[in-house]
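Quick illustration, no need to memorize.
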Amino acid sequence: MTPPLSRRTLLRTAIIVAAAPGAALTATGRAAAVSLPAPAAWTLRPFPLSEVALGQGLFATKRALMLDHGRGYDVDRLLQVFRANAGLSTRGAVAPGGWEGLDGEANGNLRGHYTGHFMTMLAQAYGSTGEQAYAGRIASMVGALTEVREALRHDPAVLSVAGRFGTGAENVRGSYQYVDLPAAVLGGASAITLSAWVKPTHDAGWARVFDFGDDTTRYLYLAARNASGVPRFAITTGGPGGEQGLNGSAALPLNEWSHLAVTIAGGTGTLYVNGTAVDRNTAMSLTPAALGTLKNNWLGRSNYSTDPVFAGAFDEFNAWSRALTAAEITALQSSRAADASTGGGDLVSYGFDETSGGTFADASGRGLDATLRRTWGGPSHPGFLAAYPETQFILLESMTSGDYTKVWAPYYTAHKILRGLLDAYLYTDDARALDLASGMCDWMYSRLSPLPDATLQRMWGIFSSGEFGGIVEAICDLHALTGKAEHLALARLFDLDKLIDACAAGDDTLDGLHANQHIPIFTGLLRLYDATGEQRYLSAARNFWDMVVPVRMYGIGGTSTGEFWKARGVIAGTISATNAETCCAYNLLKLSRMLFFHTQDAKYMDYYERALYNQVLGSKQDKADAEKPLVTYFIGLTPGHVRDYTPKQGTTCCEGTGMESATKYQDSVYFKAADGRALYVNLYSPTTLTWAEKGVTVTQTTDYPREQGSTITLGGGSAAFELRLRVPSWATGFRVTVNGRAVSGTPVAGSYFAVSRTWCAGDTVRVTVPFRLRVEKALDDPSVQALFHGPVNLVARDTSTSYLPFGLYRNAALSGDLLPTLTPVTGKPLHYTLDGTEFAPFFEGTEDPTHAHLRRAEPRVVFGGTDSGVANPAKADGTTLLDEIWAAAPFSGKGALVSRVRSTVDAWVSAGLLGASDGQKVTDTARNASYAP
């Protein structure tokens, strides 16, 4: 270990950080962005967020809520756990709690991840808006993390605070620091007094004020709180069962100085709290002399490894080789021991007057100076950066099964921090962020590269503990910036061969796997394909996507139940209150986007629209909150489910990805061909693209999806390129005009429609995308259906916890559109009623009980609102007569529909599924009814 980092050095570092240019500024005062080199394998290129301005509309309204949250949240709270781990002052900040705090789920073993998400959110907010407040916050966070890494590179240094009489030394909770005393400290004394001033800041049980022992057999200790919450002293040569003890009568107050003293002499032990004897044991036969010379002599640390480290401050620790009198103990309450009649301890005496370094001077004359240490030693590499010790990374290497209370996805957390730093660099050009990111990967390479492949395969296959998120993608992005061979080699060390090889071969082995542990792996594989050209990476990613969409996908675009995948094709059978973990949709969007860069299959952008306009938008609550981002974890699809926008204990993975999603809504609206000859319009969204290379702007004016189409206006100069407009797979009647004239050609649903010309300023393209009300049937139960109007899932708002039965054919239009069966709600776009129940868009972030699925019930044959009086018969597979008739829609006119009815009725009568007289009634009703077009 290198020498401790002095406070002077820390101050110098802080000055350098404050004075460092950090983010380079452009002439406009906006921090310069750095472009990530586009892989040669990409036949498309994305546009930076700064080049796609989001106009007023649904997305801008949602984003504004998150921008306010990002602008106002105290980033010192996020940095608290990092500073604590480095033993630095936390500036009085309180950690966010939940997953990002020591008291959260699994002891806060995931802490640090949320800070990475927050940096990415700030970077995207800055990229989208250019608002300096976001760049300033990024610079502040990067500067703080630079200080943290520098502190971790050195032995711990004292954190000096105001003491009881002068100065004290603080152990910040989460620093895992303690004071190591020389072995001779107790001197084999047959009588003793141990005295300390302490200021506890946390109420954890069994945290030690001091503990002198060899192991868990021979020791003496003083705990600030035992299981009953009061101080306890014990001495033993036979483990816990042989302890001779003393117990306090009341809990020590938090954040206040308390004096503790223990005396042992003549078979009697006494415990004093603030000068008052609170317990006496006249059968205390053991003394330090019985213990002999002990190996571990600690202030703030226990010989029991599972006990917490003391959190709080020390001011004076003294040990005398005699039992002080009650009067002498009382005198210690009002002055330093050195100034009292007792004088300082003759065995050892620490005043904790130091304000720098990591050594505490002994004033007893015995020269037993103490040393500040970390329980875990220190990082194995100078690039290490985390909000907790390196211990989790070390333990993972020997684990054979997951236990998140011991190890919770350390490389997942490393990914979030790495990604946040990369985004800070890419959006603000802060070289410190790139240095931190590069250092992290240098450290990971040094940690992982010596491990046998069998160890790595076992690690990455462990549920939860071995999860590593999208770290491979981030490492490949870093490699594209640094060109360091070690970084690309590091990315390949995360290969989970069993999964990759199965998916590359088209073998579906996803049943029972944790969904979000595996989805981001495939985005990383695509980046490895970009860097290496290894075909199995690309094949695995393509095949994997098809194993999820649509066979494990709910209508809103989400996947997973209780975070796991079930058998393919089981949709209705997996509906629960814990469907569609929001992170899964976030990561599937990233994967779909990147697959589209490689092959322009419109199915990827169809999915993108589905998940974005439904789950992602609907996961963000439509209200402001300074404290929380208000994003769902699960989106339960059980009937009557109410979304929870403050999930678990807070600061979850889904709230992190939710913050990111809400600041990059426009990232996939437009792509350009790698050769610049085409512009892809993937989403219809109110945006303005500035395409600098062509010298043009492209502005969409629309209220889509409340409007069924978009108007695209060209600005700037003139440029020749092909405009490729996505035709949604659900769209019929898709039409395009340029400057009012229809464009020839036949748009095909689920593809792109090309318009090629030399574009001039003022050219106007009108895209009409007619919506129809349609249903999507669950693969395993066709009667369970999701209702869609265009891209929007319509949900019934009802408190019932059973599926609501609805019939939809009664007023179906000749086009096959089911919308005429519903009644629009005046003044509320995309709201309808049916049989007294209101339907609303899934994307509305409310706390209404919702039904994302209905139970289709068409008991009678009805056409144009006219009941034939005939029951709607069904085949063995559940297909009804009406299903078969309407499957032929759209119809060119009423005659075509009646012809279809007649032929279908004849077939069903011939098959014995329908009586002849009933068949005639059905045909007559269809002939006499009136229909919407």
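The chain is about 30% helix and 20% strand.
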